[in-house]
Amino acid sequence: MAEIIRRVRELTASAVDALPDVNDVAVLSGAATTTLLTELAALRRRVDAAISLVAADIDRKSARDLGPDSLARRAGVKSGAELVQKITGSTRGDAIKAVRVGGMLETAHAIAPLASPDARERGTAPRATLSFEPAPRSLDVLRTLTGAWDAPVAVAMRNGWLSTDQGDRLRAALGEPSPAERGGAWRDAALQLIDDCWQGELTAEDVSRAAKAMRACLDREWARENAERLHSQRSLKRVVRADGMVKYDLLVDPLTDAEIWTPLFRHLAPRLGGPRFMTAEERERATELELDPRSNEQLLADALTGFVAAGVAASGEFGKYVPTVNIAVTTTELRSAIASPGDGLGWLDGVSQPVGGAQIVSAICNGAVAGVLFDETGRAIDATKAERTFSTRQRKALALRDGGCLWPGCTMPPAACEAHHVNPWSEHELNHKTETRDGVLLCRFHHLNLHNQGGRVERRGSRYSLDWPGREPVRLIPKHGVIAQLRVRTPATGC
């Protein structure tokens, strides 16, 4: 057995006995607890550094060109990082980081090898030779190092003067000099950041932000390209969860974030840690917010939706066709909601989740349109139109009634559908009218398929079915919640 393995096993055994348990920590004073964590953190930095050194060696010994002698191949994995991940139980990102940090520590050893214990005791170690103890951290020592611009970072990490997280993020955020001949400027920046870590006790996240800012100052072209890259990644994703809630995943660049967050923070500043010194009007507003039972997250959500609604109304982008919220509600439910906001149910356009009576009344008061009223048979209350095409209001009625393409198994939403005449206009002059009850929503594919394959949609009372020649009719069931509500409340009567 290698001597180093024996020593580490002995260390592990002694560490198990030395490390604190719940009872040890419980009896400590606050100051002693802080001291204990400081010592454990120092120990972890040493262990992390050792793991990184071994990880880099494993990665080197797992190179593809080693063929069957590759450590990774012999372990049944693809790469050295994957083998490190398997052994340590870490994430893939942590394993890759360990390999990267290990490479920097190897660089540190090549530049400034550790002095032997005997040499340190005799005081004969060369000035450039660094060790964990007892050498104090020193910028002067780091300035004298040879090697590439990042040599001071590597040695500071190896000596425990920076944590592996601090050093790795500093190195990654500064990036490579551009052009390469400017390595001296990058080294000066690295030394300044190392000093900031010591003097300002910067966290790893702080180091990363500071290094990126410094890199932008050193390389204006990178700063411009980085700003464009961040802006190009903007996105908004909408996901309907299983419980009916809708999640928006918004990703924006820092400038756009400032444009969004600044008014939100200003609006809710008293709840989010705003300034203490305010005018009388601001204090009154602050008192109202403090008494508001909503959580900060709920207040932010309500403020953002309010800003969006106000912006849409004032923008003029939509002309007279300002987008409004369409709510489907039966006459009975609307009367209940008006009489008692705790009662009544409505349904949003194309959604099978209910809207409470209080929300219905509030939405109507705020300008949202109750898009269609339904009678108790499920028929939309609207006017017959002596034209071939369905009106905008009638299409809204179809959307609110059908909830999307009625074809069995189709999930196309109302916006992607076309209105199909149950009674073809061309068959008889009596069909020369357009009523909501004689139209259904079908997506473009199923609409064309219906006509091309000779199928028909038949209406029997308020029910619709898909009829194919020589087959049993298939009932078309609307997907909208208001129809489900009527089916639950009203027993099927066949009409």
TrEMBL record:
Protein name (Swiss-Prot/TrEMBL): DUF222 domain-containing protein
Source superkingdom: Bacteria
HNH nuclease domain location: 393-448
Matching InterPro entries: DUF222, HNH_nuc
One of the Pfam families matching this protein, by short name: DUF222
